[in-house]
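Supplementary material to the annual report.
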Amino acid sequence: MARPRTKPPRIQIEHVWPQIDCGRYPVKRTVGEPVEVWADVFRDGHEVLGAAVRYRRVRDRRWREIEMRHQSADRWTATFAPEACGRYEFAIAAWVDRFASWRWELQRKVDAGQGDLSSELAEGALLYGARSLTVEEALAAHEPDRSELVVSPSLYVEVDPEIARFSAWYELFPRSWGGFAGVTEVLPDLAELGFDVLYLPPIHPIGHTNRKGPNNSLTASADDPGSPWAIGSGVGGHDAIAPELGTERGFRTLVTRARELGIQICLDFAIQCSPDHPWLEQHPEWFYRRPDGTLKYAENPPKRYQDIYNVNFDTEDWEELWKAQLAVVLRWVRLGVTVFRVDNPHTKPVPFWEWLIREVRAENPDVIFLSEAFTRPAMMATLAKAGFNQSYTYFTWRNTKGELQQYLTELGQSELPQFFRPNFFANTPDILPEYLQRGGRPAFEARLVLAATLSPAYGIYSGFEHHENVPVREGSEEYLDSEKYELKHRALDGPLLPLIRSVNEIRRANRALQRLDNIRFLETENDQLIAYVKLERDPPNAVVVCVNLDPVLPQEGVCVIPVELGLPPAFDAEELLSEETFSWRIGRNYLRLGPGQSHILRVA
Amino acid sequence: MARPRTKPPRIQIEHVWPQIDCGRYPVKRTVGEPVEVWADVFRDGHEVLGAAVRYRRVRDRRWREIEMRHQSADRWTATFAPEACGRYEFAIAAWVDRFASWRWELQRKVDAGQGDLSSELAEGALLYGARSLTVEEALAAHEPDRSELVVSPSLYVEVDPEIARFSAWYELFPRSWGGFAGVTEVLPDLAELGFDVLYLPPIHPIGHTNRKGPNNSLTASADDPGSPWAIGSGVGGHDAIAPELGTERGFRTLVTRARELGIQICLDFAIQCSPDHPWLEQHPEWFYRRPDGTLKYAENPPKRYQDIYNVNFDTEDWEELWKAQLAVVLRWVRLGVTVFRVDNPHTKPVPFWEWLIREVRAENPDVIFLSEAFTRPAMMATLAKAGFNQSYTYFTWRNTKGELQQYLTELGQSELPQFFRPNFFANTPDILPEYLQRGGRPAFEARLVLAATLSPAYGIYSGFEHHENVPVREGSEEYLDSEKYELKHRALDGPLLPLIRSVNEIRRANRALQRLDNIRFLETENDQLIAYVKLERDPPNAVVVCVNLDPVLPQEGVCVIPVELGLPPAFDAEELLSEETFSWRIGRNYLRLGPGQSHILRVA
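Predicted assembly:
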């Protein structure tokens, strides 16, 4: 180990938090959401130290600074709140305050009753540039000093629009609603129901070769519309709009009207091609061919997707492939799309996503990406670290009280909440969960309330409000006569809409429901009853949610409010769905809920 | 974010363990102690991966490799055991196995009953360089392949001699034993008592100016020997030997004889000077002077050390100062010293220690350093990370059952055991703990057993075996008539020696007592009774220790053996101090211990 050429700093800055994988990835926040920074700052000897957090938007020149507060032992803390979207950087600055150090030692000597302090006072006079000093003057003197200043390496924060954290999503197939024009007409109703994001499966031309028929059959009749995920035809590929949905102008009108109503349009981004996609001719080198010259269609044995070819990210022409994908995303961004739901990102290289998302967000920091990766936890987490602003989860497969409590604990623990934002979809075109199949309407009601109150971001796929629950066959999560392969005629008239409207209103009115990690589960003395509280301290907002998970029978139990929550001994609990008010107290509160019924109680 | 110029690897290697502060510092092991390595290794898509740990001594060219075992989900593991002292490096290598990937997909298709596999088999034939393949041939074929090989950044392991982890220490002032000659005579007895390290306070010439008299008084008579920590006189400084102790030849004899008996000599390294130290004349710029020209003696108000000047590490001449300290250490290494106990390292710069220890160990990897930093946890941990191989602890101030359990839990948790090795000294020349002052011989017996069985490294300062326990005054931890300022006449004849010998024998015979982090506390149903088990699996060794913390009264209780330990339902518990055997069982076992008495039970 070579002797350092300059005197190395004596001040140590350690355990800076928040940081992910040693600063390899940024943490995430939404605009205005505080970043609470912690660090251990210390030095050999007895000098008095000071510390500050410096931060700035990466594109800005000027640093801002907040002094850190000395918390305990060597732990310091400060909080800042980023005020715009984009990437921020922060670092810890620490220094010796020579004046304070000298005063502190003098004070200890005075306290110890030491007599002759003339040497000390002469030292202080020199420090302060004074001719002489009395003990009283010395102890009263204050002058800021930053000697031995050191600055830690920068860490990063990716700042997103609020919908990345808190939003209600609705998914529909535009072709079932009369294309862009029909969807535009229904936008005011969706806004009135309280949805923030409208997610559209791919809107591009659909291939003809190997087009799938009803219920994923291998033969399609001339009338069958095909799966929107079989992207590309003679009309065009990922850049183009399926003519049956409308025109680019119609799409612009849809996006503009949505924005006026406070709704963001989310497009599906599925990097895959039908056999008729223009890329197969333009870029044959982007596709994997077997030795016999055949293209290999997508498959995940025993599943086969004969209407879809995946691109080959191992191609020598990978740079062009990457650029083309970026161009696709930027085309839709220019048309006003601010949200992308990415299909199967875990089958494409992680470095590709990290690059693509940063490229898009460098100029468009309000654009966010939702990862549809149903895979093992490490890959799901890494996609989020690499840039995805939201992620699908295992929520649809977590149904019992134990499963839900354990899963929420996993999502809220360790460093995961710093970068992984779940979106609890209650159903999707691919997932009709068994619980919904068997439980009927009460099951849908329970799962809606769970999705919307457990997670600040949640979504439903149309048909949910009609509690559609018939699978293609026993044991499958696919819908019978799935909209993926057939034309439906849909309207916004399901019986669950009033509950959905209420729940969305309640979410907006209660800040406690707008975060994930403020949850605490409550004892109910009944395994079919799940209860939890979400708490905000400033301003105070406490919401208790109780759900009967049994879709068949009413269930009785209690909801135990523990002392540590700091609620009053007795309080009014306003049930926000029924507008009844209960008298609750710390301790056990009797509870009886009908099948699938919920209470959402605001503590008055 | 610029597009990478080469195709970035698709394989991700994450959460490599063990690592400290993102690899900034090495983890520690002793020779032969296993390094269990963990990592998450994964890739997009469905390829079959392989992984290995590569490791080598940093000074070696050749890497060795151990294949990692796939543990669960994306977690892989492998273990290696460094076989020599010095710095090792390791890294994770991961790759795609194309053959295995292809076979795995083929197998899934066969399982799914897919009919025509001719394309797949043609693909496989190309891969294997065969003209054609049958399904049976394909599934039976094995060929190792490492495509897409990636290697993680290196992490480091500092490998120490076994005494860094497991050792019994004895501290004595040579002047009280007849100098080097007298100490050499007593070495066989110390070896026979089971001590591994003999620690000597500074052996250098002691200053005359401001020499302290008995009980730290400001005036010394001509006969007073002075504190060994007031280093340096006209005879010499840190390089020199105090004439009253003997000659360099005498010191060599001591070191050689000790080594023959299996004892390492530990010297004190205290970077501080008496007013008569040669450095004050030779290097006046190494010392801090007040504006009035006075040198500032060491003080920690209200404590004052008028016989000691600290060196000023802020000196412009810091490089020479650093080099001089290294030269001092290397001088004693050349004389056979392999252990240094460093006085107050937390008042010197951390980077200095990191540099010094690496410089010394680069050529002398069997040399270890013990940090005497009684300060806040962050600095104590950082000194260990920076290189100290062992550390003093708060053990002397942890006396109740609750304090002991909490402290051992702290020392065993998180990443601390990867780099921080406690040495539980039961007393020191500076610390006569209140518990020993008040509890008399039973307290000494209890603390001896606690120190020696809680921590694999422990020590006592001479006088302990005589249960010397009179403080200089009420409320002080200083000894009355402390050996630091007076000449004593000591011999190895204290009444606690038989217990000390037994305990050291038991430690050597039971591998379970040679580690720190294998401890589990046991229920006793009595706050005065502490009990814990230490377990080794391979070969099996279980030792249960029960100590009565009450130095005045006998105490009754139980020792509860939990089922999870995996011990037999009923077993013989051999009490190793008394050589009695008890019939114990899983569950509650009755316990009665006299004041300060211990049981050390080996499970048969």
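The CA atoms of residues 34 and 81 of chain A lie 4 Å apart.
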